[in-house]
Amino acid sequence: MKVARGSELLTRKLLFVHGKGGVGKTLFARSLAELLAESGKRTLLVLMDDSSMAAGEQIRVSAHLEIANVEPISSFDEYARLKIGNATLVKIFLQNKFMNYAVQAAPGIKEILFLGKLWYELKNFDHVVVDLPASGHAITLFQTFKNWSELFKGSLIGGDTQKIRVTLESTSDTGHFILALPEEMPLIEALDLRTSLEALFPTGLDSHLVLNQKLPALGAASGTTDEGKPFSETANEHFEKKSSRETERLLSWKDEPRTTIPYLFGETTEELRKSFKKTIGAEWGIA
After folding, report:
1. 263: number of Cβ within 10 Å
2. Tens of pLDDT along 41-60?
3. How is the chain split into domains, by residue range?
4. Could you tell me which CATH number the domain at 6-218+256-278 has?
5. Rounded to two decimals, what is the model's pTM?
6. At what angle do helices 72-84 and 97-105 cross, to 10 degrees?
7. Nearest alpha-carbon partner for 194 in 238, 263, 258, 243
8. How many CB atoms lie within 10 A of CB 261?
9. Per-residue b/e over 210-238, b at no fewer than 16 CB within 10 Å?
10. What Å distances lie between residue 30 and 76, 241, 275, CA to CA?
């Protein structure tokens, strides 16, 4: 897998955002989608089973940005309408209890429908930004889809799964942002996630590491802290110790190209998104 610059990935149409829960993944995905939309790109931000939106809901939030909450049943309905065409047959098909049960229970169906929705929307937007589930679930999503696409090449939807797979494996179409906090386990797990993606897509997909909430070094206090003391005596001393430990942990990311987002302060999510956009926009030349 090629480790790309963040600005390089912005030329890809399909952008996946990975990370453990709590690393700022959703905030980053929304900020990235808004940044692309504000630059004049038609952008779709995709959420997966988001509780804040109705199932299958897709809303326009600005001139160039839409947000979709993708879930299996609504995606299945949409796919059936595209494939069958005839309204009466579609209604009969969708009201079949067995088919609805199969969508919910059959292994691989949810994953195919989710990725199929993303692939279908690529023709309607310049970019599709995907806020994926937490890291382990995201890998399962890709692994399950890959297994199905290999096992059922001759099935009714086999042709479509192969087209989706070509897009997922295309370095000109697809990119992956991997987020982590400057803490030991998230840093290690981010590299493990990249290794897992490389194993799933050995032909190569481009990825970029994003370090979120990195504390700056406090120059005035640098080198003056006593790591042996159990408690910090001042706020500056506390933050300097924390920053120093973060720098030590980042040795696991030594020589890894990455975008670093400093620790941002804001009272509202909107304020944080503005700071995110300002930081990554300046870093990637699209401010």
Report:
1. 15
2. 999 999 988 888 988 899 99
3. 6-218+256-278
4. 3.40.50.300
5. 0.83
6. 120
7. 258
8. 21
9. bbbbbbeebeebeeebeeeeeeeeeeebe
10. 25, 32, 12
